[in-house]
TrEMBL record:
It comes from Thiothrix nivea (strain ATCC 35100 / DSM 5205 / JP2). It holds the Pfam family Fer4_7. Residues 1-29, 31-64 form the 4Fe-4S ferredoxin-type domain. Signal peptide: none annotated. This is 4Fe-4S ferredoxin iron-sulfur binding domain-containing protein.
Amino acid sequence: MALMITDECINCDVCEPECPNSAISAGDEIYVIDPNRCTECVGHYDEPQCVAVCPVDCIPGDPDHVESKDQLQLKYEKLMAQG
């Protein structure tokens, strides 16, 4: 499943540069994750890098974008093909 950033985000700026798919960007009030680009780092790393660096643990799975590992892998491959 894609990840999401909750309103507990403190805008510390550590997650955005860690995302290999450029899925994280600054929103109006907190950082946001584009579910069309988030693969939970499948294809790049063994664990989501944004979750690993988040100091306030505010990046859970997004229940509105549930995906299997296979679906995330296919999304990763599509993103890589697009360049």
